[in-house]
Amino acid sequence: MLPTDMPMPQGLPEDARKLFEIWAPVTSRWSGWAKPVLFTYAPPATSIALPTWSWVGTPPLGSGRTAIVVDLPGNEGLACALALAARGFRPVPLYNNTQGEGAEVIALDPFVSGLRAAAPALAAMNIPDDAPPAFLLDSNRGSGGPTPGMFDNRWVVFAQDFPSGRALLSSGIERVTVIRREGAIRIDLVHVLRLWRREGVASERFDVATGTHSELTHDISLLGVFLGHVSAMMHGFRENAAGGFGARVPLPSEGGGGGFA
Amino acid sequence: MIALSRNFDLAERRKIRTRAIFEAGKLDPRTFDEDTLAPFALRVAPSAWSTLADFAERSWRELRAAEDALLGERRHWRALGIPAKSRAILAATPPPTARDVRFCRFDFHWTRDGWRASEINADVPGGFIEAGAVTRIVAEVLPDFECLPDPTRELARAMAARLIDQSDAGVALVHATSYTDDQQVMRRIGAELAAFGLRSHLASPVHVEADGARARVLRRDKPAAPIDAVMRFFPGEWLANLSRADRARWAALPEGLVRSNPLSALLIQGKRLPVVLRELGIATPTWDSVLPPTRALGLRAFTPRLVRDDEVLKPIWGRVGDGVAIQGVTPRKEWRHAHLSARLFPRAWVLQRRFESLPISDEIGDPFHACIGVYVIDGRAAGAYARVARRALIDGRARDAAVLIDRSLTGALAPSEQPISSNEVHHASH
Question: pTM for this structure?
Fold first, then answer.
């Protein structure tokens, strides 16, 4: 029961908790990492249907030793999440967009609708509480160029948004498969994969267009770590106290310059 | 004097977490492998709260006076470490007035020598969700204890008092828009402002511009929204990174606009403040009595031993323990990184006398170090929340805990009587 003296954050949908519980049931080992923010946004007036999903090649199977990071654009990632849930994985949404007034750089309505559209199918699946996780990211999280007046809700993922390598290993997970369609993996995720590698968790990439698996190598030597830092700095990142990487604060009139977080 | 509550059971933890997300608006419930909310609250004796509130209020009065003095000492702004572009905005901005709503947070630690402060967050302190709405949720689980004032509500009340004569008053909630962690604070404050009948608008610094005697928030595909106040959760030193045009626009905001906080807060935010105040002969006796002695690196940057055993190394713009290096506590890699940075950029760091944080034990005997952040709004103590950690360094890995008043805790334990785990090593905590 909401205390009468506690104003709710603006626009909280009535069924937000129920929807979040479907995506992040309290009994699942990995639900603690689910990001709640998109569930707190009011649903758009129109609903959408998720794109159909079909695998090419040999998709990952929830064997218990492999975790997934889905790094696909928009609702394609949600469609993939349902397909992975059918193969024994627990989808864990890590979408972390802010919401503003007026036009946003990353349109949120399709995402919010997509999470709702996928919920009935997800709720109907009997996913074990100890199913391996499939962490969901939007590969477009840093894309787009804001113009003046636009609300810049691009985002980056941090190491602290994920379980540590130690936590993965203690759950029997020794490998992470990054599911992508094309292009290089963004540097924020590369940093997470490198940290995991240093803790003993290997990673590979699964290309959903070709169905091919390829090993991801991370140079964790002193020189490799140093060069990784230099690369991160050149992309506007810097290490923070929590062990993750912060990024430049994107400012609409600068198209991505700004201060550090 | 202070103690931890019983540990919450699993059902209570889940309930608190869910309510914190959906009722309080806490959108960062986990960091790495732990929930950000601690599984207990911090109980504080009424006398301890009175002491902390008194320290905070008196320190604020001294520092506010120091801020006024520093406003007239522009040649010392550089020595404070304020970036040149931020200094230019500050110089062009109208000085603070009584119409501005001032809020800050002092971070206190219980130590072998009594209460010590690690810093003042005078510019853009966070923690409003945890100190207000989350604390009320926790208090329902622990009904024997009392809540302190909600700083979010007090902040909204203070803003509403400034705008009482303004019909349809609007407030720009200025933050780094890409970060959910920052926006959650703005949304919480917006909800409290709405309870006082005030409009609020989420915005970045570049969305705000002057509009005659008032100002407005620009929004793509929507009409600009007129505003009468700016609530800033965007660190003042980051304004230096705006484009020249945007910096000029920010500096040109009209004089009648209510600001919270005005940019002059930067003058007392940086860790070099005690060094500069000493040079200027500006006295802050209460603040000096709780803040460990602070010194510039100076020639020490060129000596083999940069940090003595009784010192800690702090970045001058660090917040919530970010970048603080403590021998024996900070991981070796971060320790080396801090040393290298301090030698390369000595003016960006200070040395501060180390204090010994005294841990407090939970019900199963695990020791935790605690930092109590005490808010001061318009000169009055207005609530608190705690951050707790197993190691004696309160930084980004620390967990948030509600601070509740426990009237059964009376009298102060002498520091030497504080229960300590037998193998616990005392370290400084900042």
Answer: 0.90
